[in-house]
Amino acid sequence: MALVIVLCLCSIQTILILLLHSLLVGVKAQMQASHYTCSMINNYTEGSIFQSNLNQLLYSPLNNNGNNSIYTKAREGEDPDKVYGLFLCRGDVVPKDCKNCIDVARERIQRECPLKKQAIIWFDECLVRYSNVSFVSMLDASISKILYSVENVSQPEQFMGNLSAIFDNLTAQATTINLNLKYADNSDVINSFDGKLHALVQCLPDLSAVNCVTCLKTAFSGIRNLSLSIAKVPRGVRILLPSCNLRYELYPFLYASVPPSTRQGNEDEGMSSLHKKPNFPGNLFEGTFSHYFSH
Ligand SMILES: *[C@@H]1O[C@H](CO)[C@@H](O)[C@H](O)[C@H]1NC(C)=O
Ligand SMILES: *[C@@H]1O[C@H](CO)[C@@H](O)[C@H](O)[C@H]1NC(C)=O
Ligand SMILES: *[C@@H]1O[C@H](CO)[C@@H](O)[C@H](O)[C@H]1NC(C)=O
Ligand SMILES: *[C@@H]1O[C@H](CO)[C@@H](O)[C@H](O)[C@H]1NC(C)=O
Ligand SMILES: *[C@@H]1O[C@H](CO)[C@@H](O)[C@H](O)[C@H]1NC(C)=O
Ligand SMILES: *[C@@H]1O[C@H](CO)[C@@H](O)[C@H](O)[C@H]1NC(C)=O
Ligand SMILES: *[C@@H]1O[C@H](CO)[C@@H](O)[C@H](O)[C@H]1NC(C)=O
Fold first, then answer.
1. What is the pLDDT of residues 190-220, one digit of tens each?
2. Is the CATH code 2.30.22.10 the one for domain 35-131?
3. Which positions fall inside the Gnk2-homologous domain (predicted)?
């Protein structure tokens, strides 16, 4: 009898764990979807030429821009219904994962921003953007999203100094060395009191170097302003702007810091960042997602 009860308890517990797990997976999927911005003023109408141009654009073929990153600019239709688009992966993401990410993003952007003439969606490993106005080499440094860890570093002033050093370094790399991609990341340059810093910067590749620097400086000032407004320095922050983005964490989230053998993932899932890299708490939406706020 006791055994039966124990078994029952166990299985109820198992069921609860399973339920909780599926709930969490749902939450994670929502977290993935939550980093988007849709214009509220420019709407198109159902069945319009703009809509059919947009549908065509969103399913444009992707070009492999050399080694890792896939970067595709696309445009579809004629004025006044012309639509411009961009598909861009994080600079360290391999083409297969990149494509998976974009496939999810281009479907999701329509769901999250129905009937919008302008929208951007950011995933961990890629972004998709479209607009009825050409934007690819235009600077738009308005902060769209700030995501940050609720956990804080213990030496805020020193840490801000370390951050400033690393982002200066990465900005210089992205705008002088890695000019084609305007992307730079690091894994082993800066140690802070709280641990090794992992960081990246990325601009839209067609942005001029000068505008890229401006955008990244604005993004960095977003970190300062955030830490002033919450009176602490988070252990991880992502700042997302239309023209650039940056991120730092005190745990490894870059592919460069993860051996390829641990990166096998579920290839059927578009959201590769959700389903692989099981051996480290390596991304925003996995493990640490509940500690992040969206600002
Ligand atoms: C566009 O649609 C949103 C709702 O999705 C609405 O709030 C807004 O007023 C619309 N804008 C215009 C210009 O119609
Ligand atoms: C984009 O769409 C908005 C709203 O329909 C319109 O006012 C604006 O003129 C369009 N811009 C271009 C470049 O077509
Ligand atoms: C690919 O990367 C290698 C070394 O990192 C570089 O020499 C080469 O130019 C890159 N190819 C392209 C097309 O960017
Ligand atoms: C960035 O830091 C690395 C490692 O300290 C250094 O080798 C490199 O020269 C720096 N790059 C720039 C552009 O400051
Ligand atoms: C981090 O900042 C502290 C204090 O400014 C400094 O002592 C340390 O050298 C910095 N670390 C690196 C790697 O720059
Ligand atoms: C940060 O605050 C400063 C001073 O208030 C302001 O000039 C700057 O625009 C702010 N930066 C961002 C990205 O909001
Ligand atoms: C930051 O976290 C540490 C623990 O790591 C805590 O002792 C400290 O009070 C916190 N500082 C702030 C400003 O929240």
1. 788 889 999 999 999 999 999 999 999 999 9
2. no
3. 32-135, 141-253
Per-residue model confidence as pLDDT tens digits over 236-259: 999 999 999 999 999 988 887 554
Task: State the distance from the centre of ligand 4 to the C-alpha of 6, rounded, in angstroms.
Answer: 60
CATH number for the domain formed by residue range(s) 145-294:
3.30.430.20
Number of the ligand 5 atom closest to the C-alpha atom of 162: 1
Q: Is the CB of 154 under 6 A from ligand 7?
A: yes
Q: Does this chain's domain 35-131 share its CATH topology with 145-294?
A: yes
pTM: 0.79
What are the structure tokens assigned to 237, written together? 């922050």
Q: Is 241 helix (H, G, I), strand (E, B) or coil?
A: coil
Where are the chain's structural domains?
35-131, 145-294
pLDDT of residue 152 exceeding 50, the answer is yes
CA 228 to chain centroid, in Å, comes to 24
CA distances from 228 to 147, 232, 240, 249 (A): 15, 7, 18, 19
Place of tokens 């991120």: 247
pLDDT band at 11 (very low <50, low <70, confident <90, very high): very low
